[in-house]
Amino acid sequence: MGQERNKSEYGVRQNAGAVFWKELVKGLVISNPVFILTLGLCPVLAVTSSIDNALGMGAGVIFVLLCSNIIISAIRKAIPALVRIPVFIVIIATFVTILSLVFEAYLPPLHESLGIYLSLIVVNCIILGRAEVFASKNNVLYSIADALGIGLGFTIALIMISLFREVLGTGGLTVFGSNLFNIPVLSEHPMTFFISPPGAFLVIGLLMALFRWIGVIKGD
Amino acid sequence: MLERLKSKSLYPIVFLTVVVLISVSLLLYINSFTSSVVEAQNRIKIKTVLESIFPDLTEFKEEEDLFIIYQGDDIIGYTFLASGNGYSGVIDMLVGINIDYTIKDVAILSQTETPGLGSRITEKAFTNQFMGLGVDDINLSKDGGSIDAITGATISSRAVTDTIRTSMAEIIEKLSER
Predict the structure, then answer these.
(1) CB A188 within 8 A of CB A171
(2) Partner A contacted by B1 (CB < 8 A)
(3) Domain positions in chain B
């Protein structure tokens, strides 16, 4: 009888680990927030014109998503259904404000270049969406996995888009002040189309097609 | 027990209030130690801009809306903040004047004008035109003065010019009364 109890305990623990991993990985490709769920596209357009901004925004969203998912999941049983959206928004806005205050004090150039899009993370559909759809209905451990997966998926999407836009649009790549490379002919006559919003739409559309094609191949 | 508590009609109000109170306290705490860092940064930023207008400055004193620029013990000029409505938003600038009330230099601090057109008010080619002018000469050439507007950005150029002129007149009046 002791052995059987051990078996089921072991089974439960292994199951939790596998579920954690599954929740995390789903946010990367199958449920990529930008390319598959198509959430929060406005800041994506604005922020991917340079890879510095993309990395800063990605880190910020991961932080807010993680914190808000944890808190909302922890108190999910106490939240009255009537005021759940205001509660989510207050919690998310608090973390975004903390992020903004910290960036303003310790990373001023990033704060300036992200500008209003830093504060707009509050209404980023991804964060509110995950709170409503996942964190309010699952335990803290899985909510952490979901936040990490979706956040990383968002950041990967931002990095991919900004790589195209910055390299084609300026002819080179500059990360946090250090110039990585400059493509010879392109840097004198860059395709500035890609820095403009229509160029962003084009890159996002093509990458979206790529991601859905991957999804089809995988048999989802 | 939670279900009984949740069924009370006052529960949503109390819950939301508690959440907000905790959030605000957390933010006040974080703000308490970041605000001093931000203030120190702003002071350095102002100092850098003042030094770009008056390269010879050794120290400056802030008085109400004016910066008094010293070189050693002598006052070599004054600098004041001027804000005006541009084509699309507020334009903030720092204007430095010599003790004879002619312009030393103009620095645009922040603007949200059209990129490539109105945003060119930040270029030296435009702001250098103000150097040495007295308050009566500060007008666009279209309006009878000596400032050439930026092609395709008349409104932005006029906004900067008019803001500098009116603010400068106010400051000169205040200085004369001291």
Answers:
(1) yes
(2) no
(3) 2-50, 59-177
CB atoms A98 and B19 under 8 Å: no
Q: How distant, in Å, are the alpha carbons of A40, A60, A64, A85, A208 from that of A160?
A: 16, 17, 21, 32, 11
pTM: 0.75
In 10 A of CB A151, how many CB atoms?
Answer: 26
Q: Which two tokens stand for residue A3?
A: 């052995």
Task: List, for residues A95-153, the tens digit of each pLDDT value.
Answer: 999 999 999 999 888 888 888 888 889 888 899 999 999 998 989 999 999 999 999 99
Smallest CA–CA distance, residue A101 to chain B, in Å, is 7
DSSP label of A97: H
ipTM of the complex: 0.78
- In order, the DSSP letters of B143-168 are GTSSBPPBTTBHHHHHHHHHHHHHHH
User: Is B34 exposed, middle or buried, given 0-12, 13-18 or 19+ CB atoms closer than 10 A?
Assistant: middle
CB contacts of B34 in chain A (<8 Å) are: 101-102, 104-106
- A177 sits in the region (left: phi over 0; alpha: psi -120 to 50; else beta) called left
User: Can you tell me the distance from the alpha carbon of B145 to that of A157, in angstroms, rounded to the nearest whole number?
Assistant: 53
Identify the domain containing residue A118 by its residue range: 48-218
Q: What is the total count of domains within chain A?
A: 1
